[in-house]
Amino acid sequence: MMNYQDMIKQMQTQFGNYATPFHGVNSKMLEHWEKMADYQLDMARRYTDATLGNLREASDVQSPEQLQSYLQKSVEAARETSDSLAKDARTLAELSQAMTEDLQQSMREGASNLAPKSSKAA
């Protein structure tokens, strides 16, 4: 007959077998979310700095020549921003794809660890 302590140990062992794969998947998700958040914060910082810089330049315009120069710079800045947005969209898609692949791999590994081990006959 199994006593209470043995029953608790058995439950902990069984729980550990099932929790380990989930721990791996959760760790991978956290790692990827952190990368994605870091990248998005960097993006926000870059675009905010560019916007504020553009607003500062606009507030300094005091003559028709400065206005013409500002407008020329604005066209170039818009092109650079468009290029940056396209690059950032590609990078975010790549980060998302890497997360999907990593999670699928972790789930496959976890599922194989949960599969009952076949016992070989002696």
Automatic annotation (TrEMBL):
Residues 76-91 have a biased composition (Basic and acidic residues). Residues 7-109 form the Phasin domain. Transmembrane segments: none annotated. Residues 97-107 have a biased composition (Polar residues). It holds the Pfam family Phasin_2. InterPro entries: Phasin (IPR018968). Residues 74-122 are annotated as: Disordered. This is Phasin domain-containing protein. It comes from Halorhodospira halophila (strain DSM 244 / SL1).
